[in-house]
Amino acid sequence: MSQIRTFNDFLKRIAIVVGALVVILAVIFGILVFTVPQVKAFNNLLLASFSNPRLMLDFLDRHGVGFNSLLFRVVVFPGFTWAALIAAEVIWFERKFLAKMQVRVGPLYAGKIAGLLQPIADVIKLLFKEMISPARSDKLIYYSVPVLLMAIGSALLAIIPVSEAWLIMRSDVSVLAIFAVAGFGPLVVLLAGWASNSKYPFIGGLRGLHQLVAFEIPMLVSVLGIVLAAGTLDMVNVVQAQSSVWFVVLMPLGAIAFFCCMLAELERLPFDMPEAESEIVVGYMTEYSSMAFGNLQGLAAYIRFYAMAGIFTTLFLGGWHGPQILPAGFEIAQQVEWFTIKTLAVMVLVIILRGVAPRYRMDLLLRMGWARLLVLAFVNLFLVLLIIQMGWFPIKVGV
Amino acid sequence: MPELAFVALTVLAVTTAIFALESKEVVYGAISLAIMLLSMAGFFILLDAPFVAMFQVIVYVGAVAVLIIFTVMLVREEKWLKVESGMLQRIGVIGGLAVGVAFGLLMLNTTLGSVIASGEAASYAQIGIVMINDYGAALEVLALLLAASLIGALMLARVDGEE
Hints:
The complex is a heterodimer of chains A (399) and B (163). Chain A is mainly alpha-helical and 399 residues long.
C-alpha cells in the first residue's frame, strides 16, 4: 500500500479497510447461515424485509431495540448520537464562524465544501494518536475523568424534553435533576487537575472548582422563579406552562442570570478561566492527549454545551412551542424542529460571545457570581412572587 | 429486581464506607466517601422518594464531598495519615460497639418493624404543604440559623482594607 500523504489518500485507505471488513463479515455470516438455524431464520427475515420493511421493524421492537424502545431513544434520537452529531457540526460551525468574525478562512479542505468534515477528520486524527499520561500521575483517576465528564453531559440529555411525547425520561423532579447532575462538575474538574500531578492542570482545576461552585447557587435561585410560576418541578409541565407566554418575557432578569451561570458552568468565554489557553495552557486538560483530550475539549464539552442550551430553551424559551409550519399529523416532528432551532440559536449566541468578549478576571468573576448574579436572581424571584400574588399574568399555578 | 438493587447498593455503600476509613491514600478515601453518599441517594430512589434522592446528590455529592476532597488535597501531610494504635483505638472500637448495641436495642423496642407502606408515596408538594403548615415555626428557626451562619461566614471571610 502506498503512503498516506493527503486527505484523499486517507479516505481511500479507510475505504479499503472498511470494505475488507465488510467482505470478511459477509463471508462469516454466509457460513453461519448454513450451519446455525437461528441465523438462517434471521436471514429469511432479512430477505423478506426487503419487500416489507414492517417485518424487520416489528422484529426489532419485539426484541426491545426497535424505534419504540427506550434503547433507541437513549442511544439514537433524542439521546446520544443526535447530540454527538450536533456537537460535531457545532464545533465546525464555531471554527468557521469565529474565523469569519476574525477575517480568517477557517477549516477549508476536509470535506470539500467549506471544511464541513473537519471535526470528523480531527476525531480520526486524535483516535490514531498515542495516549500519554505523566509519569507521576494518578492513573485510575486520570483515565476516568474523560469518561466521567462524558457521563455528566450525557446524563443531562436524559431530562431534556425535545417534544411532548417523544422524550427519554419524564420525572417529577427533573428540574432538580439538572442540578444534581451538574453538581458532579466541580468534583470531576478538581480531580482532573489533581490527578495530572502537574502545575497548570492543578491551577486550572482549582479555578474550575471555585467557578463552578460559585455559579451553581445563582443558577438554582434563578430557576426557583420558574418553578414558582409553573408550579411544578417537571420539565414537561414547565414547557406546557409556557404555551401562552415564554418565561423569558415574564422573567428577563432570571433569564440573564441563568444565561451567565450557564456560560460559567460551560467554561465558555468570557468565563473560561479554568482552561484559559493563553495563561495556563487549557488548564486541567493540559496533560491529556489523544482521544482523551478530544473527549474533554471536544465531544464531552460540546454535548454538555448542547444539553445546557437545551435546558435554557426548555426553561425560558418555551421549549417545543412555536407557530405551526408543518401540516397536521407531524406534531412530534414540528416540536422537535422548533426545539432544535431554538437550541441552536442559543448556541450561536454563546459562540458569538466567544468571538467578541475578552476573558474576565478570576476575582471579578467570583464577585460577579456571589454578589451580583445571586442578587439578580433573588430580585427576579421576588418580582415573580409579586406577579403571582397580584395575578398580573394568567399563569397556571399548580399543586 | 428491587431486592437485587438493594443488595447491590448495600454492598456498594458498606464497601466504600470501609474503604473511606481504611484507605492509605486520603484522596481515594474522600472519593469513596462521595460514592458512599451517592449510593445513599440510590436507597432513597428505591424508597420512592426521588425528591430526597436529588437533594442528597445536590447537597452531599455536589457540596459536601467537593469540600472534603478540596480540603484533603490541600492538607497532604504525612502526619495526618498515620493511624494511632493503642489506647485511642481501643476506646474507639469499644465506643463504636456500644453505640451500635444501643441503637440495636432501641430498634427492637420501637414500632419500626410494624410500619407498613401505605400505597401512594408522598409527593414533594405534600411534603411542602406539611412543612409550611405543621412545621412552619421550625422552618423559620432553621432559616434564621442559616442566615446567621451565612452572616458569620461573611464576617470571617471579610478582608479589612479592601477597595
